[in-house]
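Practice problem: predict the structure.
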Amino acid sequence: MEQKTVIVGMSGGVDSSVAAYLLKRQGYRVIGVTMQIWQEEETAENGCCGLSAVEDARRAADDLGIPFYVMNFRKEFRETVIDYFVEEYLKGHTPNPCIACNRYVKWEALLNKSLSLGADFIATGHYAQIEQLSNGRFALKKSVTAQKDQTYALYNLTQKQLSHTLMPVGAYTKEEIRKTAEEIGLLVAQKKDSQEICFIPDHDYAAFIKKHTKSEILPGNFVRADGIVLGRHKGLIHYTIGQRKGLNLSLGSPAFVTEIRPQTNEVVIGTGEEVYGDRLYANRLNFMAVPEIEGEMEVFAKIRYSHKGAYCKIRKTDPDQIECKFYEPQRAITPGQAVVFYQGDYVLGGGTIIG
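Answer:
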């Protein structure tokens, strides 16, 4: 049997390092690659693809006895992640840049490059599993460890991408992965997981957006839903649905952001109850376990990575729009975030929330 070649995206962390080890043990010809995505004006010390991450990945590859390379994807990252992130915030949305990075950089750019070099697959250290279903379609399946499951951020992968992807880590718990790393002597065995957005390690989104846009960030009015002015805000990029802290409003009762109106540059303020809603609409749809939604379907949906999920009914309202009605109101349905639909342990599909 011909030995298959897999290029593993190595971030310098324990998960991707052990993924490379597991695939080598399974008989694949493994090549390690770190994606250079930081921009020239940045220090690039932090995050999953910074300079220190490159050295950790290179050391892990040496320990595993596999070739290692750094591939430059700066242009793709700027266009599909950074520019997207900034533009969405300017529209009053709250985007998830990791989903865009997964779809367009870690998969589209890396996979196309890998296939052109003769590889059969790419692989990552994500906590998810891939299966080909009885209908012939490829779909993500939740990892064996619920608290680390990363299928939400991967819902946008295409059938071609899934068919050329391996995710060996999804069959293990985090503790098992760290134990394996220790047993084979990897120095990254106890390395902490990266929590922040890799290109904004200080969490100051507003400062980053101001730096990367020529648009003027204008202050505007805090208003109630009926239009009554409550005060002044610093600019739409400072706020997101459900936010309570940092509003600097004294109303005598807790105040929350319930809506952002980019057309009028207004931030709507309401009560905690008004943050809840039972319906959303989404577009930029991608289906996985099924080719299309037919009629009305009951599914389990997540509206953000940390959302525990809830049951709802979905139906198509346009060729690229879906309506989702929850049985119980959900907190902070946020335009720009993804809604991901599940049937059992499998990802049915998802889209971007528009309202």
